[in-house]
Specification:
alpha/beta, Aspartate Aminotransferase, domain 1, Aspartate Aminotransferase, domain 2, 7-stranded mixed β-sheet, 3-stranded antiparallel β-sheet, 12 strands, globular
């Protein structure tokens, strides 16, 4: 089988062998429905409870604030519809560069989009101008899935606290909630919800060396969501459906592993990322790095190369044994230029000359240098 160098970790990560080992018994020996009353099923229910406690420990939350979902898309939809269906006449504020699983549900309601700066960084002052007396939800991603820019989530939450105080003083009792999509940030950034100040946060197992179609929505205690699914009342009536036990066990293990190692791995990847950026800047005069250089995920390099077509570049890289992406995998089949790049002011032509190169556990200096050689040869 042909060996590839993989530079698309933002789309999917391989399942860590330790995660797979933790999941394995729940496919066969311990296959029982955790809602059943007999002892083997109760043992499975205990394993799910332990996984919930593990996730809560990583986030610094209570286990009762953890809702397991079938991935990041469902968690984002639950966060947005869950609030907005309770306040359908109110509005939501988000950024123009959110993942489609945020923008899609958000646009079912009165949605105010805030356009970030050219580096993808959101201005808190601009956000303030978009929040009015009828805003009930602010949803801003922790880090962008295409250009890797990290958003000022703590500053945003400080702003929201000030607005809440002002509302109370003015006699406006409408709540104002904050949700962040942390799917890309999970392996690399601080997830302690008390420090971030968020009311809801989305995590995706498939982006952190866990199983695909596994996810979590952190929901602050006391916050009531309208459920998307009706049925057996699992997940405290927020997310009905028999629990996907292997996925839950795998997600909890993956989250525990990546967060325990995030500082060392982030430092390692930052060095490789900066080597790649420096090489691109030196060897490709037509190339331009997109996104913030200062506030950036340690594994993300997004580049546009003038005069090149990204589909053709991806085919050529594939032929050279290198797997990369032009943007979000969820919209890869779309012929429309990336909404993220358009929001950052890129022309359609420039957007179609872009590559997203994302590093991971298996990336080393040899792989980075091979990628640079392949890019020069395009």
């Amino acid at each position: 089988m042909k060996q590839y160098l993989y530079f698309d970790h933002a789309a999917a990560t391989p399942v860590d062998s330790r995660v797979l080992a933790a999941m394995q018994p729940y496919f066969s020996e311990q296959f029982y429905n955790p809602s059943a009353l007999y002892m083997p099923a109760r043992e499975v229910a205990q394993a799910v409870a332990a996984a919930r406690s593990t996730v809560a420990g990583v986030l610094g939350s209570r286990p009762s604030e953890i809702v397991f979902t079938a991935g990041g898309t469902e968690a984002n939809n639950l966060a947005i519809h869950g609030i907005m269906q309770r306040y359908p006449s109110k509005n939501i504020v988000t950024s123009a560069i959110e993942h489609d699983s945020v923008l899609g549900p958000a646009h079912k309601y009165d949605c105010h989009e805030v356009v970030p700066g050219a580096d993808g960084r959101l201005s808190v002052a601009d956000l303030r101008q978009s929040i009015d007396g009828n805003t009930v939800l602010v949803s801003v991603q922790y880090a962008n899935n295409e250009v890797g820019t990290v958003q000022p989530i703590r500053d945003i939450n400080q702003l929201v606290k000030e607005i809440r105080t002002a509302r109370q003083a003015a006699g406006n009792d409408l709540p104002l909630y904050v949700h962040t999509d942390a799917c890309q940030a999970t392996p690399y950034l601080d997830l302690k919800v008390a420090r971030l100040g968020v009311d809801m946060m989305t995590i995706n197992g498939g982006k952190m060396y866990g199983p695909k179609q596994s996810g979590v929505l952190y929901v602050r205690g006391g916050l009531v969501l309208e459920p998307l699914l009706q049925g057996g009342g699992q997940e405290r009536n927020v997310r009905s459906g028999t629990e996907n036990v292997p996925a839950i066990i795998g997600l909890a293990k993956a989250l525990e592993l990546v967060q325990a190692d995030r500082k060392a791995e982030s430092a390692r990847l930052e060095e490789l990322r900066d080597r790649l950026i420096a090489g691109i800047t030196e060897k490709l005069p037509a190339a331009e790095i997109t996104g913030s250089l200062k506030f950036r995920l340690p594994n993300n390099v997004h580049v546009t190369i003038a005069g090149k077509d990204n589909e053709r570049m991806l085919v050529q890289l594939d032929e050279a044994g290198i797997l990369a992406a032009a943007g979000s995998a969820c919209s890869a089949s779309s012929e429309e230029p990336s909404h993220v790049l358009k929001a950052l002011g890129c022309s359609d032509e420039k957007a179609r000359s872009s590559l997203r190169l994302t590093l991971g556990h298996d990336t080393d200096q040899v792989a980075v240098d091979a990628l640079l050689d392949a890019l020069v040869a395009l």
